[in-house]
Specification:
By secondary structure, the chain is α/β, with parallel strands linked by helices. It has five helices and seven strands; from the N terminus they run βαββββααβαβα.
Amino acid sequence: MEKTLVMGASLKPSRYSNIAINRLVSTGKEVVAFGLREGEVAGIAIDTDLKKYKDVHTVTLYLNAKNQESYYDFIIGLRPKRVIFNPGTENPDFYAKLRDNNIEVEVACTLVLLSTGQY
């Protein structure tokens, strides 16, 4: 099963990262999550410390470009197949770094990809 890491996970039900975790879980995806506050969404624990997640296929970002900078090396080090830049997370500098490391960049909405069967 392809594992997704949600970066910028929120406990607030109105936040898109929260909705994405719920939808990913409901479609049977394996999910891990990282955020600023500990808690649980759809049975998934939100980690507040970076972990050496194994076998991450997709990283879906819910962090703005400035907040992504401190995670560049971490995300690249996970060696995911792709990184999804959700609306508001666009970051051409990071796109280049990911592509230099043979990681696919997808500027899209995780929720739309899930609802259209393109995830």
